[in-house]
Design a protein that fits this description.
Elements: H1 4-57, E1 76-81, H2 91-106, H3 108-112, E2 116-121, H4 123-131, E3 135-136, H5 149-164, E4 170-180, E5 183-192, H6 216-293
Parallel strand pairs: 1-2, 1-4, 2-3
Antiparallel strand pairs: 4-5
């Protein structure tokens, strides 16, 4: 059994850790509220814009916009949205694992040919792929310091420009979609070229007859770049909210585990103290008996 000093030091150490995890949980809860408000406000607009564009572009020819042209995916760009910090459970490892699975299952030939590039949004994914010598483009870790549509659009514009120049033929997006504080859904979706939705006979949305001015082609040409920017911005906001939710959940669990460990350590401390007292009493009784015998 450990001596009293060792157990006391462990109790002090675990108590300090518990205070830190509790504080981190409270900080994440406050940040989660702001991040949740941002994504909840944007998501209906982003989804409606995506549906509207799919409805309009379904009847257009591919040559009406370069972002509708579905080329042979010889060169692929994967956008991996993670966080700058850890201590969020499996948040970062899951999104990296999803991106790796996408590469190995869908783009293994392109990867073997050296035609898979990575844009990492977040320090964790940036460091992971740079250590493994992937073709990582740029550094976007500062985005979370001032997360807004303007800064995110700069990344999107460089991606669209690369697509137009033929630097890559397909752009895939991998991120954590925010469901609630305890649940994040891993999403892998095609960003460019913009996927078309085939009209469904049962769908009322596909039967909507819009009145367009000036023309369907001109409106779609303006909407497509805007939609791409909005979809990437939504993904980053989703990931940001998911990160704070995952960290809050992880720190809450860590605080509970520290409490359980403290109970165990205090029990061990009391047992060690009782054993020490019993030993001292035994020695005193034995000494008194020896003196009485003499």
């Amino acid at each position: 059994m450990a001596n009293l000093k060792e157990v006391r030091n462990r109790i002090k150490s675990v108590s300090s850790t518990q205070q830190i995890t509790k504080a981190m949980k409270m900080v994440s809860a406050a940040k989660l509220k702001r991040a949740t408000n941002a994504i909840v406000q944007l998501r209906p607009y982003a989804n409606k814009l995506k549906d509207l564009l799919a409805n309009l572009s379904a009847s257009l020819e591919d040559n009406s916009s370069p972002f509708l042209v579905d080329r042979e995916p010889n060169k692929v760009l994967i956008i991996v949205v993670s966080s700058n910090r850890g201590l969020a459970g499996a948040f970062n490892s899951n999104v990296i694992k999803t991106a790796n699975n996408l590469i190995s299952s869908k783009y293994s030939n392109q990867f073997n040919a050296g035609n898979v590039s990575i844009i990492a949004i977040g320090k964790k994914s940036q460091e992971f792929y740079e250590r493994r010598k992937y073709k990582v483009i740029g550094n976007n870790n500062d985005l979370y310091l001032d997360l807004n549509f303007t800064n995110t659009s700069k990344i999107t514009e460089s991606i669209m420009d690369g697509f137009l120049k033929g630097e890559y033929d397909r752009v895939e997006l991998v991120y954590n979609q925010f469901k609630n504080a305890a649940m994040q859904i891993l999403v892998s979706e095609q960003l460019i070229p913009v996927p078309k939705s085939a009209p469904q006979k049962e769908s009322k949305a596909s039967q909507i007859d819009y009145i367009l001015e000036p023309s369907q082609e001109e409106i779609v040409e303006q909407l497509i770049p805007k939609n791409i920017k909005i979809q990437l911005y939504k993904a980053v906001l989703d990931s940001n909210a998911s990160e704070h939710g995952a960290r809050m959940t992880a720190m809450d669990k860590a605080t509970e585990n520290a409490g359980e460990l403290l109970k165990s350590l205090k029990l061990s401390y009391n047992q060690a103290r009782q054993a020490a007292i019993t030993t001292e009493l035994t020695e005193i009784v034995s000494g008194a008996a020896a003196l009485a015998g003499n």
